[in-house]
Structures are given as C-alpha cells and as structure tokens.
Amino acid sequence: MDYSSILEQVFKESKAYSSVGKIANYIPELSNINPDKFGLYIQTKDNQHFELGDSLEPFSIQSISKVFTLSMAFSLLGENIWKRVGVEPSGSPFNSIVQLEYENGIPRNPFINPGALVITDILLTHLNNPKTDLLLFVRKLAQDDSINFDLNIAQSEKETGHHNASLVHMLKAHGNINNPCEEVLDFYYHQCSIVMNCKQLAQSFSPYASLIEPFDFASVELNKSQVKRINAIMLSSGFYDESGEFAFKVGLPGKSGVGGGIIAFLPHEYSIAVWSPKLNKKGNSVRGMKALELFTTLSGQSIF
Ligand code: DON
Fold this sequence. Notes:
Elements: H1 3-14, E1 39-44, E2 49-53, E3 59-60, H2 65-77, H3 98-102, H4 113-126, H5 130-142, E4 148-149, H6 151-160, H7 162-173, H8 181-192, E5 194-196, H9 198-204, E6 215-217, E7 220-222, H10 224-237, H11 243-249, E8 254-256, E9 261-266, E10 270-275, H12 286-299
Helix pairs in contact: 1-12, 2-4, 2-10, 4-7, 4-8, 5-9, 6-8, 7-8
The protein binds 6-diazenyl-5-OXO-L-norleucine.
C-alpha cells in the first residue's frame, strides 16, 4: 500500500475543510489552540510509519482518555463493570443529563461523560494512586515517558465544569458514585487534560489494533475478548451521536476528543491519529473526520 501518496492526496483534499467548524471554547484554556493546526500519523503492522503536518505537536486528548480509563477499570473488575454502565450507543450529546435521569443513573456507555465519570469512580475505589497509575499506563502504551497532564487545562475545566458537576451529582443521587463528587471530578479533569501528539496516540492504540500483543502494560492486562469489547464500544459509541455517521463514512473503530484529536484503527493493519482543532456541532473534528474518510476511501482499507 502506497500510504505516502495517499496521504498527500488526503492532505490536499481535506484542506478545503480547514475553515469549517469551531474550536471548543467551553473549556477556556482550550481556546488558546491555533485553530489551523493539522497533524496525522499512521503506524502500520510492519512497524512502518507515515506522517503529515503537525504530527509531533502535543494537544489535549480530552475524551480519548476515556478509552484508557475504561481499559484500566475493565482489567481490574472484569465483567462486573457492566453492572454500572451499559454498552449501547446513546444517540445523545456526550454531556446529556436527560437520558441519565430517565434511565435511573445507569449511563448508556463508558464514553459519554456520565459513563466516563462512573469509570473514574471505579478507579478511585480500587487504586491508591489513580492519577499516577493512569500516567504509567499511558506512558507504557505510547512508549514515551514524557506524557503528562496539563494542569492549566485541568484547572480551567474544574472552574467551568458545572455540567459535569450536575452529571456526577445525578449519578450519586442514583447510587452510582461511591467516592466524593469533587474527587471524581478532579480525577476526570486530570485524565481529560492529558497532552499527547499524533505519534504517541497512534503508538498507544497499536495494542487495541492488535499490532502489539499481548495487551499487558503497567499492570493493565486485557485478554483478546476484552480488547474486542472495548473496540466494539469505540465503533458503536466513540463519536457520540455521530457514531453512525463515522462508521458510515470512515468505517473504523475509534475515539474523538474536543481537543480536535481522533484516533482510529484497522485491526491487524494500522492505527491512525489525526488532529485538527475545529469541531462540528457534535464535538468531532471536521477536517479530522474528512481526512479519515478520504484515507479509508482512497486506500480501500476499512473494517467493511
Ligand atoms: O467533559 C468534557 O466535556 C471534556 N473534558 C471532554 C469532552 C470530549 O472530549 C467529548 N469529545 N468529543
């Protein structure tokens, strides 16, 4: 596969979309990003890599972190985690509170905010140093010890995160949070503030794509069936109420974040990370999604 020439075309054709969308400014610190950044990095099964643009520039991974925390909780508790969070697509915005209320405090899946908050609560209960353990896990996955939280971003979200505070209190009212709400929010804002570049993201999702086996990193061990399940949730719920559209246009499991990053992968073939900060109304990167749609179309490589 001639990924280099495909990427050249992806870069050119996706450029038309670089003026579409808006950066996330509901977390004030995120509005400092240069909206015109664009980076892409592919890691292949035979250990080749290809990159474009700002692929080595770090950005806030935000909701992409929900895959890492889910992996840790699944490794600790096994099937028991599904008593507290479901595996169905929500068809609702990532921070919707309405559905949570009428479904009695059991979030639809671990990638919408209430689901991620329950996972965060599980980690607080079972780990003595959850923040350190999360960083150790992500650093091992990415094979890069420089990865860290951005404390300004975490603080900025803490100061303005009234929506997430409502969600965690609603969960607590339904008996689905065991730790103090403030502690759950503090850990959640830290996980979302992790800063990574496209190369580190592509590398850290190589084990999800089964390019590296077994899945055993910093005491987070997952068997093949567990990896399959996490990947299935990425396919069905990785892009919130745009997950159907992403499967339709791109055809890969993946996960987005409001920092403008998207990670996606084709099991046994490649993992691909893309970053472009301007988002559509559903909170997904406009040019990032277009670039991935072009990539799977031009390469003819998707799970379908
Ligand atoms: O909780 C929030 O709103 C953010 N920290 C994360 C949201 C997010 O990344 C949704 N992704 N598209």
